[in-house]
Protein: N-acetyl-gamma-glutamyl-phosphate reductase
Amino acid sequence: MREQTIRTAIVGASGYTGAELLRLVANHPNIELVAATGDSMAGRRVGDLYPSLHTAYPDLVFTEFDADALSGLDLVFLGLPHAASMELAPQIVGEVGCVVDLSAAYRLSDASHYPTFYGFEHTQPELLAEAVFGLPELHRDLLTGARLVATPGCHVTAATLALRPLVEAGLVENTGVIVNNVTGITGAGRTPTETNVFTNIDSNVVAYGLLHHRHTPEIEQEVGAQVLFTPHLVPMSRGILATCYATPAADCSAERLVGAMRTFYDGEPFVSVLDGPPATKSVLGSNAAHVWATLDERTGRVITMCSIDNLTKGASGGALQAANVALGLDETAGLTMVGVAP
Amino acid sequence: MREQTIRTAIVGASGYTGAELLRLVANHPNIELVAATGDSMAGRRVGDLYPSLHTAYPDLVFTEFDADALSGLDLVFLGLPHAASMELAPQIVGEVGCVVDLSAAYRLSDASHYPTFYGFEHTQPELLAEAVFGLPELHRDLLTGARLVATPGCHVTAATLALRPLVEAGLVENTGVIVNNVTGITGAGRTPTETNVFTNIDSNVVAYGLLHHRHTPEIEQEVGAQVLFTPHLVPMSRGILATCYATPAADCSAERLVGAMRTFYDGEPFVSVLDGPPATKSVLGSNAAHVWATLDERTGRVITMCSIDNLTKGASGGALQAANVALGLDETAGLTMVGVAP
Amino acid sequence: MREQTIRTAIVGASGYTGAELLRLVANHPNIELVAATGDSMAGRRVGDLYPSLHTAYPDLVFTEFDADALSGLDLVFLGLPHAASMELAPQIVGEVGCVVDLSAAYRLSDASHYPTFYGFEHTQPELLAEAVFGLPELHRDLLTGARLVATPGCHVTAATLALRPLVEAGLVENTGVIVNNVTGITGAGRTPTETNVFTNIDSNVVAYGLLHHRHTPEIEQEVGAQVLFTPHLVPMSRGILATCYATPAADCSAERLVGAMRTFYDGEPFVSVLDGPPATKSVLGSNAAHVWATLDERTGRVITMCSIDNLTKGASGGALQAANVALGLDETAGLTMVGVAP
Amino acid sequence: MREQTIRTAIVGASGYTGAELLRLVANHPNIELVAATGDSMAGRRVGDLYPSLHTAYPDLVFTEFDADALSGLDLVFLGLPHAASMELAPQIVGEVGCVVDLSAAYRLSDASHYPTFYGFEHTQPELLAEAVFGLPELHRDLLTGARLVATPGCHVTAATLALRPLVEAGLVENTGVIVNNVTGITGAGRTPTETNVFTNIDSNVVAYGLLHHRHTPEIEQEVGAQVLFTPHLVPMSRGILATCYATPAADCSAERLVGAMRTFYDGEPFVSVLDGPPATKSVLGSNAAHVWATLDERTGRVITMCSIDNLTKGASGGALQAANVALGLDETAGLTMVGVAP
Structure:
């Protein structure tokens, strides 16, 4: 592990994932933040837009994006719209130590999904091929030294951590998987809409993005199985619980399911295999993931679950964890905060 | 429809379903409430325990249970523990016009489920055979004139309304059904526990009662299919959303699914077939049920959903609706209130 | 009480107060709704914008405003912006039985407050003088037969019901009054903003509109005292709790405070004087107001409180109650629903 | 600042303040936790009772209290009932480096308040005289080297931080002060009761402990003024907002109020003087306090506000901050986490 200063910029820092990165890097022992850009908020103090960041960043001001200023930095996070990220990346990859993209621009190895799910053609096939999917629990080796990291979607992290160990161990079939998620509203972003107003979330649960949610191909890619994905909004700001159903393979048992999880996550700093169903509040504000699985022998169905904080492990925390791996730092640096409960 | 006065008692009125019945019968044009018993609260004013009932019942006091006082009444609701209800029912059925039991004591036609799911042997097989399952949308004819009505469990109402029309129309297979529900905490009752304290529900989602929840055999009985049932607690007081997955039969299509629902619920006063996913807040405080279904052709899976208020349509409202049918009253009497939103 | 049909229109029905009126008039025995206008929503089904209204109004569609169509109606509610209401009223007052304005356009008897607090000159001094302040508990006699009713602001209803009986009885001084309110977010209206997004309300409390909130002159007018008013947003959709502090007059005592309240509200259908602090959930979804007062002898301060649902008693319910009085109907018609709790 | 290892025990660690201490000390660079006692939970894993602590303390088990095991430790936190703390303290003060008591046992310099507000006579007058009130912003010098620290009550910290600078600067009178607080439910503790069940807190606001709340004499002691204190429960887990009203002294102005605050808190690591009303969510999960004050010239009243997280700055975070000062450590050690928002 190198003792070093990581000169870092956050591009598109004024959204929720940007604010979450700011929360985390404030306690990172190596990171020196040199810029937080946010064109629409340029000139505004970070602590005025996010008063929770006031104490940590009393003087930090959002600046306008300036590509030249990034050159030579050790680490650049991109918190931009998907297409903007796709276009910016080739300008800075190689010019900086590591680019960690929080958009979906470099997540899908099959470029043909982009027109279908994101509405644009992918114009950077080489960079797409180079990008490493930023889930250290699956791709730690590839991440080490990576120049471009694609941070997973929040639902993808939850579903993959619940399902991948079981698929890989051959304990469940790779068709007929159902991923039934609930999530807090922060995943919908900062812009006020009819969806994220308080009155629409309070005392309310509703499914959204049915059949064709953008995270579907990403989950299928990482899990290695065909998946029907149904997310629901529930009345909370943060948190995802993935409740997944799969068909057991021949030698499946409840013990083997949990055993496969324990083997897969042995030594992982952030994933805990529980003895029962995980809860979202247990990981609120932390980079932890709680997983558990069981088998219903009567109906012949595996249930596997994962809870994360969608903004932390599901976005900015996962991004920082991947950055730590990419740069050869302590993987937990800046991520040791404990979840806020009760 | 008869213009008449229905002399009514609520036995076990101090719990949440009792309070909800009191809320509803306050606006019933025919019901005259003659007693609200609640042994542990006897002597206490209803409006002191439930200040929301203060205006409607300024002077009503919970009384101790007295079987003799029930004799000759037109309608008796039982809001008692399951075993207590099982034992009390034979004493009053036939002595009063109609007994509507909100417990599970007379819901399961297969008595062998009682030791497994409720921990007691059912000692009243004849009454169990006579009891009518109180879901008017399925059993309206049987309910008319019934002496004993068994009010469905809250999750059962939601799951059955989502699934039954599709099973009955032969559009889905009757095995491999998954019922993935979310619910507010009122279903857990009034007694303070580590489960229903605010800090355990706020910002939290967790599954409970996995594999062996008591509502499983009841759902299977009413839906007519084998079901894996997984309920989750979410941060709200009221509401259930059932998200159900089933295997499509040969001729299934999204249009036929919705068509089967529209046919099944044609003329129903409380069930609306929406054009998209239902939300729990849309039915909060009302007796409405919102349903919708679709087909994912890619993965070969039907999704069907239902939202209800667990205390209203899912318990006391459904009980009152069934009582109206049993007694030949307007089925909507006392149930015309509109949901409270936003 | 006349048995009659009240032909009614709601102008500006697509906002929250319009939706709440629609919820209530659906159960009014006399009201026949002939139009619900909402220019920005014209052509859209009411039940699509507000699914909670789907069952009660399966076919109702928002229409464009048409002044001619109002002529001859018995009752017209105005749910428009303040200045628009001010301008529309003279066109329809006298042409219809009763106009009930939910804006502030005709609330303030001192027209000089309008430029200061609302940013426009009041151009209708005669109509302003004629308008009756729509709080039946204070102005029932004037309301009877009124052609133009000005519905109170939500905070005003709460503060006035807490304070007026004590001021009128001479038990508190008419200077130095503090009104410290908390409120749910529905008072901020339907349009999504940075204020009413879920993430800004969840787990958050903040004061707003300090020193110069628009409801200040209105509270002072109705209470008859100088008032410092400080509202706070708390994490809920509906409800106001007014906690008011006043200086006791010479003969004040806790008993006399409660006694003055009981006298003032004797026979009132919607106001209950409790034996302790009122709660907002006890009146959720109902037209009830719960009040209580006490004296702290040690510090020489009266505390008086009132809880209401800001959309019901604090807006549309209060408006309907005032309309009932104005038109000589049963004052409780359409308002007998019980609060939704737990 | 000494680089050292602080051997530490938490006595009564299973309650909410104990769990919050565990959350914080997990990131303290100097603290080595040697015991977490909790008699009723003895033998139970910390991570089972508080899953949020699972990752930080995979193997830690609550143990039974053993006074001998404390001897020679550097730091002992007491999270016990008031009377138990009063009795235990004399056994360990002097035997360990510093005792930080989270109960009220050693907060009130006037022992005569204990029978009135806590129901017991104080039997340790000498230790009561020695104990230092653990608010570094007021008593930093006394805290350095203190053997016994009394952690302030949560409402006391909020009210004192809002009011003390203004009283000390002579800008407000020291009579007629009103402290109107709202708070999340965690302050009520872990035991399930009719007060802290979800249904009683959700969508609800109610005042409690009126006129005689136990924090009243403590606020008066620290603020140096006569205070009427009225707390309210609002629907959230954590957070206090103190909204205080005071009478301005002769030379008071809005500018001088804010100026006095800026002077008083100059250099303070955790207190920020904002430019407008503080919000509770801005400090959620952090040790920050946000304050602001203004003057209403029209009614002649000062408004001063403070927001804190009641479990962090208002209890365990404040306790750790005081311990850091007492032991000569970096005052911010273990307390650098940033608030969790949005």
Remarks:
- The CA atoms of residues 205 and 234 of chain C lie 5 Å apart.
- Chain C is about 30% helix and 20% strand.
- The longest strand of chain C covers residues 289-296.
- Chain C has two domains: 6-152+314-326, 154-310.
